[in-house]
Amino acid sequence: MSDIDQYIHTCLGLIECPRPSGLINYAIYHLEQDIPESETSFQGRSGDIILGGGMGEFGAMLISIPEALILHTDFEVIPEDMELYENAFSAIYHTPEPVPVWAYWTPTESYKFGVGYARIGWDFEEAALEKWIAYHILGFSLKYHATRFKFPDPFRIKEGTLKPLRDGSICRLLTDEEDRMYNRRKYRT
After folding, report:
1. Which domain, by its residues, includes 63?
2. CA angle, 171 as apex, 12 and 98 as ends, to 5°?
């Protein structure tokens, strides 16, 4: 049993990494329960995204929701909510917990990712690797799974203005066979 399988989650898709040894896919999970503090592989809350953490994959990466939506997407705030936004942004940005993106990778895993993603456009001078990956995962998630991700109440944005910083092109949806493998819980009778 993989670490992620101990917790209620849905696999949203896969992220593809062109590593020197060939193309490798890593699962993108949407947590549906809080991870207890006793978990040593990764942390997270219901609603967060975890990259990896199952089936013998590399160390996991956490994308905290809604913090990552607020800090790592472009959008227009409804004018009367500007003070709410500024307060939410300030609280997230100036608080050490929760960090919007946190990688639980070893230096070797980071190197392998960096070599692979540099081949398809990641530039270390533009963004940290984990943020660049998170931008793509947020772009993919908002394109294909938008109803799962919401800004916190009472925070509102102008309809149709939420734009990810990357298009999610390094991610893909699951095939039917992969969906049955990664989302076994939904196929149990």
Report:
1. 3-187
2. 65
* Residue 184 three-state SS: helix
The domain tally of the chain equals 1
Question: pLDDT, tens digit, for every residue of 78-100?
Answer: 667 677 667 766 665 555 555 57
- The per-residue pLDDT for range 3-50, each reduced to its tens digit, is 788 889 999 999 998 887 888 899 999 999 998 888 877 788 899 999
* Half-sphere exposure of residue 75: CA atoms within 13 angstroms, side-chain side: 25
Alpha-carbon distance of 41 to 25, in angstroms, equals 19
Q: What CA–CA distance (Å, rounded) separates 169 from 121? A: 11
Distances from the Cα of 80 to the Cαs of 92, 152, 156, 158, in angstroms?
A: 20, 16, 9, 11
Whole-angstrom Cα distance, residue 157 to residue 135? 19
